[in-house]
Structures are given as C-alpha cells and as structure tokens.
Amino acid sequence: MNTSAFSSLISRTKQTVRMPALFVGHGSPMNAIEYNEFARGWKNITEKIPTPSAILCISAHWETRGTYVTAMEKPRTIHDFYGFPKALFDVEYPAPGSPSLAQSTIEAIQSEKVQPDRQWGLDHGCWSILHHMYPDASAPVVQLSMNQLQKPEWHYALAKELSVLRNKGVLIVGSGNMVHNLGVMNWRSPEQGYDWAIEANEHFKHLIVEGNHHQLTAYQQLGAAVQQSVPTPEHFLPLLYLLGLQEENDQLQFFNDKTIFGSISMTSVMIG
C-alpha cells in the first residue's frame, strides 16, 4: 500500500461518521489463538463500529524515550514474549502500514515532536486483539509509542490532540489492562480476581462513568488496592489515551468486564 493509501481509502469510503475509540484489556498473548470469551467480545464490538479507514494503536508494550509513530509500508509482526507454544509464534498479522496516517498523527500532535519510526512494527498488545477484531488485516495499522519519561497527565493531554483523527475514519485503540500485576497472579483460580483487584477495577469503572478523569490521571493516590493493582504504569496509561479522546456527547460501553488470574482485569471500554 503506497503512501497515499490512507487518504485514498478515506476518499473512497467517504467516511463522515465520527469514529468511536476503544480501550481494550488484552491480557495474555494466548488470547490471540484462543477463541475464548474475550476474543468473542473483541469480535462482537466490531459489529457496533463503522468500518475504519485505518487503525491507530497505543500499546502497553511500546515504551520509548520520546514519542514515535510507525511509518513503514509493511510493519512486521513482533512476537515480544517467550515461553509460549510455537503456534503463537507462527501467527502473522499482515496489515499494511500507513505512512500517510503516521504523518497525520505527527501533524496532529503539536505539544511533542513525534518522530517517524521504521523499525518497530506491530507488537502483541496490538495484533493479538486485531487478529480477532479484523482477521482479514485489510485496514492499515499504525502504532504510537508511549513516552516513558512523561507523567500520566501528560499522556492524557496528548491524547486530546489525536481527536481530529476520529473525524478521518481512524479507529484509535488503547491496549493494556486496568489491573495488571503479573507478580502475584493466581494460576490456581484463573476465573477469579483477588478482592483488591476487583475493588480497584470497580473504582476505575465508577470514575470513568462519572467522567472523573482528574482522579484517574492521579491514580497513584487512589489507595492501597489501586497501588497493588497498578504497580507499573505501562498497562494503565493506554486507558488515559481513551479518556483524553472522550468528548461530552460520547456514550460509554464496558465489555469483557472480568478480572481473571487474581490480578488481571480484562475490562474494556468503548466511547462514541
């Protein structure tokens, strides 16, 4: 797909509907090859979304010093994990890239100098969910990195600058987990969550419904349950990108709302 593909696709589809945006709890990479309840939830949500002209993904698994956007024609499928079955490493997600969308993203973000990247590709935070949502891999996909030098409120503010892309048929997807503490996972009871993890997840949902974005950006101050549920920021920050994109008339919908393995929340949110 050439550099004008993004603009051409928008022109052909005559996209006039403002696209929704998503935060998706991605969980284990194994979800990519298991057609389980979460995979079904990801697939079902696409039935409520107009066909995107392109997809911009902010994944927990691409942290950088500075901010980068993938700008290659053919992004590689990155298998950024180990210890899983060969069948998972065999999965390829051959979506085209979009240098044009990368440039539109660079132009949309005025508060930060965003650099084009031609090395990264699509990591499992991105392709493991898109593999179920859009299995034909026909829509161009671009990833935006998260600047690990910046605070949560900075990421929230930057997301607001991406809002213009929703009017261009771009589906923006944040991929992480609201509750993500791998160090204390309960392998014996995969269908259950610890009390503190459920408490934190419910607290997050309550604040999302209230539209209390200030407290969510200051999540480290929300008490012991949240601190235990979010020991590191990278899986929580993609949620702040979704909240930064939310506007007054956007409707909210939760899906895949479940806490598993004790300390992983799969709860996902759509706005729009």
UniProtKB/TrEMBL annotation:
Residues 43-252 form the Extradiol ring-cleavage dioxygenase class III enzyme subunit B domain. Keywords: Dioxygenase, Metal-binding, Oxidoreductase, Zinc. Transmembrane segments: none annotated. Signal peptide: none annotated. Pfam families: LigB (PF02900). SUPFAM superfamilies: LigB-like. One of its GO terms (molecular function) is zinc ion binding. The keyword Oxidoreductase applies. Its cofactor is Zn(2+). Belongs to the DODA-type extradiol aromatic ring-opening dioxygenase family. This is 4,5-DOPA dioxygenase extradiol. It comes from Sediminibacterium goheungense.
